[in-house]
Design brief:
Belongs to the cysteine synthase/cystathionine beta-synthase family. Residues 2-312 form the Tryptophan synthase beta chain-like PALP domain. One of its GO terms (biological process) is sulfur compound biosynthetic process. InterPro entries: Cys_Synth/Cystath_Beta-Synth, TrpB-like_PALP, TrpB-like_PALP_sf. The chain has 346 residues and is α/β, with parallel strands linked by helices. It has two domains: 7-30 and 162-323, Rossmann fold; 35-132, Rossmann fold. Helix content is 41%, strand content 14%. The strands form two sheets. The protein has a six-stranded mixed sheet with strand order 1-2-10-7-8-9, with helices on both faces. β3 (58-62), α3 (66-78) and β4 (81-87) form a beta-alpha-beta unit. α2 packs across α3 (66-78), α3 (66-78) packs parallel to α4 and α9 packs across α10. The chain is globular and about 55 Å long. The structure holds 4'-deoxy-4'-aminopyridoxal-5'-phosphate. 4'-deoxy-4'-aminopyridoxal-5'-phosphate binds next to α7.
Length: 346
């Protein structure tokens, strides 16, 4: 069930650019509703092939949520114990879902940011000899996108005699950008790759280099990073998987264009997607569609096709700013009844 996610054509009502077609790749169609199901499958299967995992072993990972949910699913299915470290600010429904799938969740303090949860996972893996997924460093991350995500995009467009003029993505680990980007550049060299990040956490834009430990993990966080609402995007360091992707292709860099996402537009665009397209995606999906619309307005020409990523489902954000205006519209009595009613009886 992992992969082979559909491309959804967005209507002119949201794109505002008639003559330029934007397709969104619906990663919420994966079994646990995010792009990270691909990575979990790849990391666990690679470890099994390399003899690093046997039944009953413990798998540990640091994650903003989607990876943890995906890894917990794989562990439950294949008989591994699962421990997840996750920084406090990420949404509570993510923690609940991991626990539902049998994982132990360790919440790390907000002050330690993304690096705090990464350090905690490494410390526990070392201490107990657990298998650490290393999503920010491992080649198994980007390779699954080279094998699946990239070919799916190019092949699905070929079936309707279309080519991909622009491919738009953000980054968390950079696995999607590196792997799918590599495949797209090698197999569709005219495609321009657009990478985006929140204006509040402009790591690429400020040309930051991350100092690394021997295993490639970050040895520092960066002052250019500020809290931003796009969960799953842009940690407070440049992941090794992203760095390798950015350096690929020599002078013909993998990133052709860059879009900075201003405050507020990610949530606004996710809400518009829900209300004008019936597409329920997360905050990063809203940000990516906004970047695709910017690309349509500023770079593309009539007849061009743009593909952008929808990394996960909006249902993962019920307690976050994505639903804040919905909460505000529900009156206190309604919310109280909804929260206290133990079961639904007609
Ligand atoms: N959006 C969301 C919601 C995510 O959880 C992630 C992964 N952390 C991404 C986008 C980015 O994916 P990648 O790690 O492949 O860069």
């Amino acid at each position: 069930m992992v992969g082979n996610t559909p491309l959804i054509k967005l209507s002119d009502e949201i794109t505002g650019t008639p003559g330029i077609t934007i397709y969104a790749k619906a990663e919420f169609a994966n079994p646990l509703s995010s792009v990270k199901d691909r990575l979990a499958l790849s990391i666990i299967e690679t470890a099994e092939k390399e003899g690093k995992l046997k039944k009953g072993d413990t798998v540990i990972e640091a994650t903003s949520g989607n990876t943890g949910i995906a890894v917990a699913m794989m562990c439950a299915q294949r008989g591994y114990k699962c421990v997840i470290t996750m920084a406090e600010p990420f949404s509570v429904e993510r923690r609940k879902l991991m626990r539902m799938l049998g994982a132990q969740v360790i919440v790390t303090p907000k002050a330690g940011k993304g690096k705090g949860m990464v350090d905690k996972a490494a410390e526990l893996a070392e201490k107990h000899g657990w298998f650490l997924c290393h999503q920010f460093e491992t080649d198994a991350n980007w390779k699954i996108h080279e094998e699946t995500t990239g070919p799916e995009i190019i092949n699905d467009l070929a079936k309707i005699n279309a080519k991909c003029d622009y491919w738009v993505t953000g980054y968390g680990t950079g696995g999607t950008f590196h792997g799918a980007g590599k495949y797209i550049k090698e197999n569709s060299p005219t495609t321009k790759i657009v990478l985006s990040e929140p204006g509040a956490a402009a790591l690429i834009d400020s040309g930051i280099q991350t100092k690394r430990n021997d295993d490639g993990s970050p040895a520092e966080t960066h002052p250019a990073f500020a809290a931003h609402p796009i969960q799953g995007w842009t940690p407070d360091f440049i992941p090794l998987v992203l760095e390798k992707g950015l350096a690929m292709n020599g002078d013909n860099k993998l990133m052709d264009e860059y879009v900075s996402i201003p405050d507020g537009v990610a949530v606004e665009t996710s809400m518009k997607l829900a209300r004008t397209q019936g597409i329920l995606t997360g905050i990063s999906g809203g940000a990516t569609v906004w970047a695709a619309i910017e690309t349509a307005k500023n770079s593309a020409k009539k007849g061009d096709v743009i593909v952008c990523m929808l990394p996960d489902t909006g249902e993962r954000y019920l307690s976050t700013p994505l639903f804040a205006s919905i909460d505000a519209d529900m009156n206190d009595a309604e919310l109280k009844i909804a929260r206290s009613t133990p079961s639904f009886i007609l």
